[in-house]
Amino acid sequence: MPYDKPWISYLEQLQQLKDRGLVVTDDERALAYLERIGYYRLSGYWHSFRERTGACCPLKAEGRKKFKRGKIDHLTLDSFKAGASFQQAVDLYVFDKRLRLLVLDALERIEVGLRVDIAHSLGRLDPLAYLKPELLHDEFSSVIDPQTGLTPLHRWQEKHARLINRSGEAFIQHNKTKYGLPLPIWIACEVWDFGTLSHLYAGMRAEEQDAISRKYGIANGRTFASWLRSLNYLRNVCAHHSRLWNRNMLEQPKKPGRGEASLFEGGWGNGHIQARSFLVFCIAQFMLQTINPSSTWWQRLTDLLNDFPDLEELDLNLKGMGVIDDWDHWDWNDG
Known about the structure:
14 helices, 3 strands, mainly alpha, globular
């Protein structure tokens, strides 16, 4: 299907928004945001302001987009809900930016801690354990993809080699010059990103997986692996400056065992909560309790969430990100 939407100027973009019912109280300021942030990026925030059929909104013949929820068809219209404003979209964008930066702060600490955990666990078996299929899970190290002829370990090793080769870190260059390749895992792991870490953890044997997950209070390492996949998805959203606050999590974490992470165990009883970002924020805090017990990250998150823009007139609130009831009264020392 050919793309037939024409290029339009910033002034035309602004007028289009006005014509569709978005309130603009300061044209000059709104134009500056369109020029600096972009119409398409901001549209991810005012999308929630648009009218939809199936509620109090009549069906219109033009300017509508169709999506399915269960067996009922809903239509998202181009027109905006009464009272929706350009400034509200900007406020939501700024909130989301602050949220991404705060989440990245937690993920950085978790990533560094996991590097130590994985390197120490596998390094005890062999300094080059990441090259030894017999020290990893069979499905990861031995099962060949019939389309590529490669195992997951092969693909992982290719990424690992790229990270080592392009690294400009002085310690990498020093060890390559003095000792050559391959590098022991406790050195090599320092250039791995979160995805590299989570994929290698998923490829570890159950015994080593469980030993690491138990450190965090989760008995089953395969459950913990799903948590790391969710955290990695979260990290990618934040690192690419994508919308986060009401993001649908494509990598959803598995429910832990009974009595584990009891403070937010109710999150797995609700499909909406499980599909949204707040549950993964809880997982991040749960892991920070082990990595850095004195961290104030949850308090900073609480302060930020309490500063969520006032969008009640548009039926938007923290429920859109999947908050769990009474979340702001939790005592993590008891959870």
